[in-house]
Amino acid sequence: IEGNNKDYRGALIVLEGLDRSGKSSQCSRLVSYLEGQGLPSELWRFPDRTTSVGQMISAYLTNASQLDDHTIHLLFSANRWEKRSLMEAKLKSGITLIVDRYSYSGVAFSSAKGLDIEWCKAPEIGLLAPDLVAYLDISPDKAAERGGYGGERYEKLEFQKKVAEHYKVLHDSSWKVVDACQPIEDVEKQLQEIVLACVTECRKGRPLSSLWS
Ligand code: DGP
Ligand code: NA
Ligand code: NA
Predict the structure, then answer these.
(1) Ligand 1: does its nearest atom lie under 6 Å from the Cβ of 17?
(2) pTM: predicted TM-score of the whole model, two decimal places
(3) Could you give phi then psi for residue 150, rounded to 5 degrees?
(4) 110 vs 59, 103, 119, CA distance in Å?
(5) What is the ipTM of this complex?
């Protein structure tokens, strides 16, 4: 990728939301859409379970291992840090990244367990700030009705209710809230509009910045 910098950059776009909010399928649809528009893009996700840190996270989520709440928090953060330089290189080479969860999941899930929010935010400082965070908004009860909670550690209604509360305090100017209870095609259309606007703005030279800004 080095030496391959374009005169425009890709956009860093994050989808956030509760489990079963539809993030993963909307992320794939967005990448197909952008590719169809001739805009190079890639689908990323956190946690990235393929790295050695990611394997520790996966073991924790599937209850194959137990870890202290602070320890797992820092592992999730480390998992984002280990991808930071590649992320920056991809963006500078003109590729838009559609990212399924990011630092906001990190803070919302850990602070929902009772950890101090400023402590939770600290290890995320210096990661790339998204150009857009699309929050797929669904009530915890509706999400649970969709069924198919996979039985991982956090996939329980009571805990998801706490996570929803903690997501609320993280909204900032980069957030757009999308009603995830609309028909899937309507969610898709709405996302396409806000994502295309964001990609266009980044191509025009919107500077990259760092968390938390
Ligand atoms: P997913 O692969 O998107 O289903 O995410 C796995 C689970 O991990 C999901 O319940 C959300 C949670 N999660 C994602 N990122 C973080 C994080 O940074 N910290 C914590 N504590 N949980 C996270
Ligand atoms: Na999940
Ligand atoms: Na998902």
Answers:
(1) no
(2) 0.96
(3) -80, 0
(4) 17, 11, 10
(5) 0.94
